[in-house]
Specification:
Blueprint lengths: L1 E7 L4 H4 L13 H15 L7 E4 L3 H13 L7 E3 L16 H8 L1 H9 L36 H21 L4 E5 L1 H12 L17 E5 L5 E6 L3 H12 L7
Parallel strand pairs: 1-4, 2-3, 2-4
Antiparallel strand pairs: 1-5, 5-6
The structure holds 3-phosphoglyceric acid (3PG).
3-phosphoglyceric acid binds next to α7.
GO molecular function: phosphoglycerate mutase activity
EC number: 5.4.2.11
Pathway: Carbohydrate degradation; glycolysis; pyruvate from D-glyceraldehyde 3-phosphate: step 3/5
């Protein structure tokens, strides 16, 4: 039986401000740091040790991973970072407040942008400051790889090949893998792992900094999935993600 642990980063500054974030490299809030440390403590109770970790090139995920590893005295293990695990690129929505955007475009349209399978957000153009190649870390992306605003489907198209080429071989070698990423890059992964339909994926909201434990069979099909922590705490955090205008301090 194979094991993999997924964790979304702790609360970021733009989660708190209820702004579309995507590839914007915002930091964790103090609450996000505390959440990350708590995730580390929750992982102390599982009956195995993480061997290798994967994360994005965005600091909210990298820092969350570091806090988790620090609590577990595992800062020494191999860490692989890739833009392919980044949050979904939210295009021209990045920076906008989600509630104000709902007032302007309608709640239904914003829900389509946030949760539908294949509706992309408003796109950026190459002259936009947010155009990825303007950032050194995305200098090597091919023209085809450069996102201008991704749907979940587009996000799956870059997360899945990375999962298959880089992460699966480690899992199959018996390594216990930790992936610390983002709400939508994890939704992408979970959709594929659990074979969630395009209709049902709309309802999947990933709570911040809650370790999600999977046990997988030989074909990497999930035998079970378990959110660590009390069910009440997990549900409260899922509700905040589903309805971010209700963020509680
Ligand atoms: O990029 C963002 O704004 C968030 O991290 C994920 O946002 P969502 O829950 O609106 O998809």
């Amino acid at each position: 039986m194979y094991k993999v642990v997924l964790v979304r980063h702790g609360e970021s500054e733009w989660n708190r401000e209820n702004r579309f974030t995507g590839w914007t490299d915002v930091d964790l809030t103090d609450k996000g740091v505390q959440e990350a440390i708590k995730a580390g403590h929750l992982l102390q109770d599982i009956p195995y040790e993480i061997d290798i970790a994967y994360t994005s090139v965005l600091k909210r995920a990298i820092k969350t991973l570091n806090y988790i590893l620090d609590v577990n005295d595992l800062l020494w293990i191999p860490i692989r970072k890739s833009w392919k695990l980044n949050e979904r690129h939210y295009g021209a929505l990045q920076g906008l407040n989600k509630e104000e955007t709902a007032k302007k475009y309608g709640a239904e349209q914003v829900m389509l942008w946030r949760r539908s399978y294949d509706v992309p957000p408003l796109q950026i153009t190459a002259d936009d400051d947010r155009y990825p190649p303007k950032d050194k870390r995305y200098g090597n992306l091919t023209k085809q790889e450069i996102p201008l605003g991704e749907s979940l489907k587009d996000t799956i198209a870059r997360v899945l090949p990375y999962w298959e080429a880089e992460i699966v071989p480690q899992i199959k070698a018996g390594k216990k893998v930790l992936v610390v990423a983002h709400g939508n890059s994890l939704r992408a992964l979970m959709k594929v792992l659990e074979n969630i339909s395009e209709e049902d994926i709309v309802d999947l909201n990933i709570p911040t900094a809650v370790p999600i434990l999977y046990e997988l069979d030989d074909d990497l099909k999930p035998l079970n999935r378990h959110f660590l922590g009390s069910p009440e705490r997990v549900q409260e955090k899922i509700d905040v993600v589903a309805n971010p205008s209700k963020i509680m301090e």
